[in-house]
Amino acid sequence: MRTRLVIASLLAVLVSATAASADVRVHIDKSSQTMSVYVNGQLHDRWPVSTGKRGYGTPSGTYRAQRLAKRHYSSKYNGAPMHNAVFFRGGYAIHGTSEVGRLGSPASHGCVRLHPSHAAELYSLVQSSGGRTRITISQ
């Protein structure tokens, strides 16, 4: 009985360690206004996004998630909510939006907007990645 308990405990630790170090890759395609999320090399989901509208570009390139903020309010844009924010370059972040009707077309001041439920899911995945999230933004 004790051996089974030890084995069960070890398996729990291994599963927990694997989940905590998930390899998360995010690809944002500005031309199609979509985000593809990969976990451990497998497509996890694909969601519509809004990137920077004319005059407010979203930077292209490859980034690491720099910091997370569950509840964030923009200091630059009148306290606009940026919940479940994954910051990737200075003040640029992937975050939830209340303007879900605009998803699929450029509408932001440079951030990447997601449906609030998708932003919460991405936030959780990035948090579980242990700092191993790579974000690629392409034209």
Short description:
With 139 residues, the chain is an alpha+beta fold.
Describe this structure in words.
It is a single chain. This protein is an alpha+beta fold. The chain has a single domain, classed as L,D-transpeptidase catalytic domain-like (Beta Barrel). It contains 2 helices and 9 strands; from the N terminus they run αββββββββαβ. Residues 5-19 have low confidence and may be disordered.
Topology summary:
Layout: H1 2-20, E1 24-29, E2 34-39, E3 42-48, E4 61-64, E5 67-69, E6 85-89, E7 92-96, E8 112-114, H2 116-128, E9 133-138
Parallel strand pairs: 1-9, 7-8
Antiparallel strand pairs: 1-2, 2-3, 4-9, 5-6, 6-7
Given the C-alpha coordinates, what overall shape results?
globular
Helix content: 10-25%
CATH names the topology as L,D-transpeptidase catalytic domain-like
Per CATH, the class reads Mainly Beta
The largest sheet is: 5 strands, mixed
Could you say how many structural domains there are in total? 1
State the end-to-end CA separation: 58 Å
CATH superfamily: L,D-transpeptidase catalytic domain-like
Structural class: alpha+beta
Name the strands of the widest sheet in spatial order: 3-2-1-9-4
Q: Assembly type of the shown chains? A: single chain
Query: What percentage of amino acids are in beta strands?
Result: 25-35%
Tally of helical segments: 2
Number of strands: 9
Radius of gyration: 17 Å
> So, CATH architecture?
Beta Barrel
Mean pLDDT: 87
Task: Jot down its keywords.
9 strands, L,D-transpeptidase catalytic domain-like, single chain, globular, alpha+beta, 139 residues
